[in-house]
Write a structure and sequence with these properties.
homodimer; Rossmann fold; Dna Ligase, domain 1; D-amino Acid Aminotransferase, Chain A, domain 1; 9-stranded antiparallel β-sheet; 4-stranded parallel β-sheet; 17 strands; globular
Chain lengths: ~350, ~350
């Protein structure tokens, strides 16, 4: 697959959440149709997609039919079972590629990869068992944070070690899953770069955004971020280095800690990213269209920012604010159409144009 | 129906073309689901809508089931058969209301309505038959233009009278349909106002756009339009007068000729309008979301414009330009996902940010 996809082609999306939903709308804007593959019933993405397959990731027949219907397959989350990818890839291309998934599915692999690229990361140690944890605590110290190697998101799969007494029970919280101990980094703030790379190697980055988390979940992203000109350049160079090393096709999110010693890579996500939602109201081409352009082999958009924006997530009971936000000037609501509001569930976001 | 619709409610849309498609995406952004009713197979709107009914407008059972599924019904075109509206309205509200449809479905009714409001329109005369045509030509003169009272769009259903010799055969071209003769207006340019009114009577207008037509089809809309401050005020007042007179709920397009004697109303469209597509890239809330907000009883967006935009339609073979447009900076493509490219068919549009 080297030619750009023609309008009318079908893009498959693994995962039917809000990211798949916004990818589907962006794909439609370029004349593509979308086919969502999602085990859950009535996923948000299906409301704005052309076709839906409801099946488990081990349903080979469903995966095969899905892959045959799609000209290219992409995904909205990184924890897709390897076997499912094998079935799909035998039939149609997956973009971004397997290597990006292999690395980002495992925190230890990801940290080793970033370090080998010469990028700064927080101190870390492999924690396969209790003995290794004791050793890691000696090396890295406390406070530190124990994270499962796989399947963590939005603060899940993490235990914070604040004192020696936390160490003994820390592994219990992870139910025996292999883990990584990470040292704390003294950072002034966190930024993220939403970067894209096309199949011909062209790279385009959106302006870095400044992130605020609450309870382990992204609360807001503000552009422009507080960064010096040289920090801004560094952020883009770091993202480009990662994209090129992975021979990446699509949009990638890179979270960075800003410290006096430079930018430290927190983590990468091989997909569109919550901290890039501001691009929907600040750029001619948003992160979702940028991703679709890349996976479809279209030229990337330039990603220039023409407005200052604050993106705020609407989580759980934040939905009660919607009637008020609807009355605000210069506020764009983006709701996800989820049937049930739950504490901690991302229900939507609002982009406020501040200048 | 007086309370605002809650997210999760279903909005029915009569018509599955590009306007229905963009309405559906806007509705999803506010957390609504859409149900499209369209006689044609595989309509563009269905690609981004939650549900589709494929049935004719005289299929009472299908209309009934559709209406029962919808909390409110709106439409993307004005020529919906009255009987279909009767079936739907017995079950669920239709917004904008029947009066707006009754008036805009018939050029003669529309012109009388506008004139009775005290607005300027081009000279016109009722032409039920050949005798009336001869009389109308004496009164209005030549050049003039003969238009069917009903079902005209994009230059269809029109015969231009350039000389006396055109008169004899003019009615043949309309196949006996009741018609209106319109005099030509000497205008410098055409503008349109995309205006909205909510159920509580609040009115919001987007900045007027300047339209260029080619072969009877809209070619481009440019904002800002060339208008003096007082012309701009007049345009908005005219639109508001029409909205209030119709007790209108939703977005309405008003086409105006700019003349030394003031603004003359060309025609009105009780729906989102091609000349309002620029709002997708120049405003926090576009005409599609504005329409959905109005019909859902939500507060209207303020419609402020934060960019200069030129919207250009992509018609028929213009689709060949898409690969080039995709490489342009500050150009947003909006393609409609139509299976077949035909001469004169609207296939998409591009919004170019010019400042």
């Amino acid at each position: 697959m080297t030619d750009p996809l023609a309008t009318g082609a079908t893009i498959g999306i693994l995962g039917g959440g809000q990211l798949g939903r916004m990818l589907s709308v962006a794909a439609a804007r370029l004349g593509f149709t979308c086919h969502i593959f999602e085990p859950g019933i009535a996923p948000p993405a299906a409301q704005v997609a052309n076709r839906l397959t409801t099946a488990a990731y081990d349903d080979t027949a469903a995966l095969t039919a899905f892959a045959r219907d799609c000209d290219v397959v992409t995904f909205e989350f990184e924890n897709i079972p390897t076997e499912a990818l094998d079935v799909i890839e035998a039939i149609t291309p997956i973009r971004p590629g397997r290597e990006a998934l292999r690395i980002s599915q495992d925190r230890l692999t990801e940290k080793n990869f970033l370090q080998e690229l010469g990028l700064k990361v927080a101190p870390f140690a492999d924690v396969p068992d209790a003995e290794a944890l004791a050793r890691a605590v000696r090396d890295i110290g406390i406070p530190s944070i124990l994270k499962t190697r796989r399947f963590g998101y939005d603060g899940k799969g993490q235990v914070r070690l604040s004192s020696e007494s936390d160490v003994a029970t820390a592994l219990d919280g992870l139910a025996g899953a292999p883990a990584v101990l990470e040292g704390f980094v003294e950072f002034s703030h966190e930024v993220s770069v939403i970067a894209a790379r096309g199949p011909t190697g062209e790279v385009a980055c959106f302006d870095p955004g400044e992130n605020v988390h609450r309870d382990g979940i992204l609360h807001s992203t503000t552009v422009p971020a507080r960064l010096s000109a040289s920090q801004r350049t560094d952020a883009v160079l770091i993202a480009a280095k990662i994209l090129n090393a992975l021979d990446y096709i699509g949009v990638l999110g890179v979270e960075l800690f800003v410290t006096p010693q430079g930018l430290i890579v927190n983590e990468i996500a091989p997909r569109v990213h919550n901290s890039g939602h501001w691009t929907q109201n600040g750029c001619s081409i948003d992160q979702f269209e940028q991703h679709i352009r890349a996976v479809a082999g279209w030229p990337l958009g330039d990603g220039s920012r023409y407005a200052d924006v604050v993106m705020e997530n609407l989580i759980g009971a934040d939905m009660d604010k919607v009637p008020h936000i609807a009355r605000e000037k210069d506020a764009s609501l983006h709701l996800y159409g989820k049937a049930e509001t739950k504490a901690g569930r991302k229900m939507g976001h609002v982009n406020r144009i501040t200048r």
